[in-house]
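User: tokens in, sequence out, please.
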């Protein structure tokens, strides 16, 4: 009887300790009002595409934690109630846009790619951090920066 009481008292504590810690919220997300204001202030210019961009020049997701690639890590971090398979790919969860409140329940429907699309970065020759270049962009594929 004494052991039954002790075990019954410890089970809820064990369940709490065994629960996975929630992923942290990404830092620096502006309010939807601030994002819309900044978007409205952008100048839209004519297309300056030089025709040199090729998506195949840029590799896909890199492995960043265990067997999880960048996309899988971000889907786990930014979703609610996310469960993953043994391959690290989310099998269920809910994702809410911090910008407009849109919701998705299918991981394949969630875009997490780039704040600046690769083609646009190529066209405007955005200077890239050396670490990112080394990790994700072959140096020979980079266009020369505008001086």
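Assistant: Sequence out:
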């Amino acid at each position: 009887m004494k052991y039954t009481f002790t075990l019954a008292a410890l089970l809820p504590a064990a369940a709490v300790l065994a629960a996975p810690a929630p992923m942290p919220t990404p830092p620096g997300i502006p309010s939807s009002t601030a994002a819309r204001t900044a978007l409205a202030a952008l100048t839209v210019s004519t297309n300056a595409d030089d025709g040199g961009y090729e998506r195949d020049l840029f590799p896909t997701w890199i492995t960043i934690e265990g067997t999880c690639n960048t996309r899988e890590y971000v889907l786990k971090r930014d979703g609610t109630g996310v469960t993953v398979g043994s391959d690290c790919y989310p099998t269920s969860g809910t994702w809410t846009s911090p910008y407009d409140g849109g919701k998705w329940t299918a991981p394949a429907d969630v875009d997490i790619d780039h704040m600046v699309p690769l083609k646009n970065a190529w066209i405007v020759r955005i200077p890239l951090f050396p670490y990112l270049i080394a990790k994700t962009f072959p140096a020979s594929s980079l266009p020369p920066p505008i001086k």
